[in-house]
Amino acid sequence: MSTLDPARRRHDELESRRGSPTFLLWLCFRFAVFVACAALLGYGLACVADIFRHAVVDTAFADEARFDEAPTWLWWPFGAAFGYVLFGVGISDDLATFLGRHRCPGLMAAAGWAGITLGFSVSTLNWWPPAQVGAAIDPVTLTETPWSPLAWVGYYTEIWIPLLLLVTTGAAMSRTVSGFRRQNVQLRERDRLLARGLRVPGTIADVNVLVDSPQEDGSVSIAGIDATVTFTDAEGVARWVTRRVPSLHRVPDQGTTQVLFDPERPGDEGSIFVAFHRDPATSDWIPFDGP
After folding, report:
1. Which of 188, 205, 206, 185 has its CA nearest to residue 197?
2. pTM for the whole structure
């Protein structure tokens, strides 16, 4: 039995993490390990790519000892992928809580992809050169066979794959920065409304559960929830807004939803924020994410 409201306990716990130096150190550690695992994953994938590259450009490999070592380093991608997932799960939500945001758009995806790009690019510096550029040598007859177009593509893999990864990393980072800038505008509006806006209870009118593609066993995972909430503004007009709830959040019961809006502009979608908790923390207020 407890005398403390669970909603209030949750609120206090989340607010204690917002801006906490101790929590920031824990986040920095997890983030650093996450990026390091991404880099190791990229390095291991590049080692595998090097093997297939030589399978295309050479008929025999100059250093057979390299393959004797393969079973050892071949576990790197698997171990790195495990650490990537282990340390990546939940860090985006925790970082959003620390920053007082409802989410961090694309940050972890961009950071992970940057780590993979770094690891892959570093690994290409240690790739073997082919036995002979432009021709594959038959180890039995010692005859030379000119490279096919595919072999030339494989030969330049150490150039075009890192460049492709670099371009996509830049695009991911650019989109993340754009998302944060747009969100900063929303946060300033949220903070203004928390001080001067009107907060009223809302009622969930409709719930649309978003699921990923079904697996082979028929199971599906929830990708998110679109909840339509109705509320009444200061003039007595009923209004409806739809907000996307992350799948890790509990689907709220009727009466737990709150709506924050500008009473002077109740129809402005960009000035309406919805929280699906009875005692919402700062990061619980969800803005409009539409165009």
Report:
1. 188
2. 0.81
